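Issue: ligand-bound run for manganese (II) ion - logging full I/O for the record.

Environment: standard queue, default settings, no custom constraints.

Inputs:
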Amino acid sequence: MKALCVASPNHMVIEERPKPSISSPTDILLKVKTGGICGSDIHIYHGSSPVATYPRVIGHEIAGEIVEIGKEVSGFGVGDRVVIDPVVSCGVCYQCRIGRRNVCGQLKVRGVHVDGGYQEYVVVPQSSLYHIPAGISWEEAIMIEPFTIAEQVCSRAEITKEDVVFIMGAGPVGLSILKRAKLSGATCYVSDIIGAKLDFARQYGADEAINAKNVDVKEEILRLTGGNGATVVIDAVCSVKSFELALSYVCSAGRVIALGFSKEPSAINQLSITAREIDVRGSRLHNNKFPTVIELFTSGKLEVKDMITHCFPFTEIHEALKLIENPEIENGKVVLLF
Ligand code: MN
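Outputs:
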């Protein structure tokens, strides 16, 4: 079978590998059908991920069809359509015991620390699989994982309809968070410096789309909130500066959610957090959000078709990467077909 392997940074190869086989009685063998390309895959490809190791078969947004099941598998059968949870946790450490398995002490992420799903066949334990709702296409199914990220952010921010949420950055993550936050009934403002991305934000229900290139963002947020500031600020820009700025947009008793992986320090003073009792919270991956997100897909509350803009056969990975990195083309989710 063929696998897409980042042999070393900037070196993507289509490798011939033996087809994997089931080794544990609770394992399941999948024929991979679709794989989404995520910003983090691009970082691993370029060697700018602080956590990935090489060589690595990447891919963590994966849907496939079951072709074989282990002897003790229950609830799944050959022919079932499933998505893979990329989070692998130990289940016994403090974090796992309190239900925070996404920050497990032994955390492994498929496609990052261990091989992922950009291969024709993959073996996964049944505990990492979820059924794809009927009526959801293979292409749409790969959007389930990105929405677990959005679900996690909204849960960390405790978003309700009372909230005024300011999402900094209208890339794929920012836009997914917007869609999810709107389902909670929150007022949502979004900023970016690219007009086409702001158009997507408007289309997905943003109450205001702010071009940070032309507008004093702080003034605009204060104007929109009657001088109060946003109750939740989500930094989906993830730069040293955006994290600093996030603190300046949030109101007293508000929450700032950090998503970035930068190791560079940001200059933030204690008073801005203490005096106003700001909660600064990180959000990483997701903890058991697949069932919640799948329910949103099943009920039709989350529509994701409009977020998928390009599909490529997986052997055309280099063309897909070129498209994603072409600043002239405003792409949404790019899907690999296996
Ligand atoms: Mn992703």
